[in-house]
Amino acid sequence: MQPAPAAPLTVPAVLDEGTYTGIRTPRSPAALALDGTWHQISPRYVVSQFVQYAIVIVLVAIAAVVAATMFEQNWVWIPAGAFMVINLITLAILPRQAKALGYMLRADDVVFRRGILWQRMVAVPYGRMQLVDITQGPLDRIFGLAQLKMVTAAAATGVQIPGLTQGAAEALRDTLIEVAETRRTGL
Predict the structure, then answer these.
(1) Which candidate in 5, 36, 98, 114 could, as Cys together with 104 as Cys, close a disulfide (CB 3.0–4.6 Å)?
(2) pLDDT digits (tens, 9 = 90+) for 133-184
(3) Which residues contact 179 (CB under 8 A, 6 or more apart)?
């Protein structure tokens, strides 16, 4: 006897408050033909990441200036410059990368998508979730953001959704826990 199909999932409206309006899709749209609505992260995530990267770039620049002037180590400009260029390139693609992050709540699982060139799509069945965790760093709290982490027994399917608003993270956590409790499966 086959189990009855799961009832459609009711999605809290707070998940889409203050987020991007459309997920950036790949050139072959058939790859994303799924039965649900994509939810995205907050644009404040990009601002938060810009501030974090700027702090790191400034600290590296200060360390390079100190090493070059006080200790006469001019070679330090090479790794410091390479580090800064890599971080500036990362900052240049960050807004587009953030628009490619998304998640979809379906009847039996949650699907997470990320990536522009190297795209990753992970479906995590509700019944296999062992832990749903919300974390916030100091800058995340300043910008009102949180990161939601879903842990399963398989390490490869652990999913982290950064850049959620605090309300969206809490609502998503509560929804996932509620649905996971009704869909527990044995290993």
Answers:
(1) 36
(2) 999 999 999 999 999 999 887 766 678 999 999 999 999 999 999 888 887 7
(3) 9, 126
